[in-house]
Amino acid sequence: MKNNMSTIKKIIIPLCLVAASIVANGQSSYLVDSEDRLFAEGKDFFELKNYAGCTDKLEAYKKIATNSDLVQEADYMLAYIAFEQGKENAVEILESYLRQYPDSRHGDEACLLIGSGYFEGKDYTRAENWLADARVNALNPQQQEVLNYRLAYSRMQNGDLTKAQENFMTVREFDAEYSLASSYYIAYIDYATGKYDNAMREFNYLKKNPEYREQANYYIAQINYIEDNHDEVVKLTERLLRTYPDNDNNTELYRITGNSYYQLGNQDKAIAMLKQYVASTDTPA
Known about the structure:
Elements: H1 2-47, H2 51-64, H3 68-84, H4 90-100, H5 107-120, H6 124-133, H7 141-157, H8 161-174, H9 179-192, H10 196-206, H11 210-226, H12 230-243, H13 250-263, H14 267-279
Helix pairs in contact: 1-2, 1-3, 2-3, 3-4, 4-5, 5-6, 5-7, 6-7, 7-8, 8-9, 9-10, 10-11, 11-12, 12-13, 13-14
């Protein structure tokens, strides 16, 4: 009997060790399964644009995560969500992400988002810097359109009209969504740099589009005035003043219409228009 008890003890001890090992392995397997599941569910929610659900899953995942590559992916998705949700510190979150992961495969997209954040805040200097850091070919076609247009506009606002116009020409050629807007700014840059023939051609094209008709005609009037085409000026400006009586540009139209009438020898109309000009501005030229 004593020998049997000894044998039983010898059997029980190894079995207990095996059981403990099974429990430990089971817990480890459960943690891995739970970790993978949370990341996969978070990614699924991200792709569905269920950002609240995605955030919950990824925050829970990061608490138990052991895969550094997936943690980086989770951090990017969370930074992207902050931007999409319009959080005030979204740009700072994205900048922090790039400092932590400077070689991230999402680096170009992150630069686009950061640049867009500064663009929307009208900080065109920083917008240009960040947008210029993104490699266009690393982005999808829609992102490329946004990048090219915002970079061109930022450069224009920063006074680099030559590069801005080159960028707008590229946008107009390849990006249908921003084609008309790019044509408008190409025309504006030609006007601002004294290339009046080019500007006139562009604005005559743009005036056919209802969205740009009003502003294009104002520039056409200005170009005619600069080139001393006073008959054309008064015909166009009289129509514009009747059609758009509340336009912010009308103060300038009163001035060039009055001066054009003066050049044409019509003193009465010249005086009438210049009186309206003086009445509509605090600083008459």
